[in-house]
Amino acid sequence: MEEDLIKRRPFVLRAALFLFSALCSLCIFALFAMWLLVRPDSVLPDHWNPTRPLSITAPVTPVTHWQLFLAARDEAACRDVLARAGVGFSQLKEFTSGEHCGIAQRGSLSTLIGAQVAPVETRCSTALRLAMWEHHELQPAAKAHLGTDVSQLLHIGSYNCRKMRTSRGTSSGWSSHATARSFDITGVRLSDGRRLTLLKDWEGAGPEAAFMRQIWRGSCRWFRLVLGPEYNRLHADHFHLQTTGWGLCR
């Protein structure tokens, strides 16, 4: 037995040295990769570099949602991203209304990148996700299905100090609208003058319905909870786009 242990000892030692060497090599590689990423003259494009700030108009890559997460949680970074993209979001003083209502990162949203918005108070992180959706989903879908651009986003607001509404009535929980973490979209106005709404254009087999359904699916890439006409009758006329939640898309 003792002789077997002696014979196995060189193998165990070699295995331990190999693992230690591999771990050291991995650490060195990780440090070198980080050095390359944080260098001001890094050859890696910003939209592939997780250490660089988000650009709304940059191509979407595997690191885009990480950049979005960082920008959304930092008000200064969020406002800077919106400003660099040309989004009209003017800063307002934060306010609270009671224990459950108020708007942090408060501002007035008036334009996205390509579409106008009737001025509405919301939080910066909500406006940021809306701008990502408009640029990467809404406008491409309008071009593909309708041959034109979206000139205006139609909505029924963001902030509303109220409890959640359900098909059985008002619940005891507070709505995400109470903190402006949601945005309700009713339709769009197109550059050629057409006005599309969920009530009128959700159903059917034409390009208008195809457009509506594509932008609904696309919103699920940028918002954490999306409710629309397929969910219940309370959402027959609008998309409820929410920045919090666990990935529900209905």
Automatic annotation (TrEMBL):
Assigned keywords, A-Z: Membrane, Transmembrane, Transmembrane helix
Domain of life: Bacteria
TM region(s), chain numbering: 12-37
InterPro entries in UniProt: Extensin-like_C
Domain Extensin-like C-terminal residues, every copy: 77-250
Name of the protein this chain belongs to: Extensin family protein
Naturally occurring in which organism (per UniProt): Aliiroseovarius halocynthiae
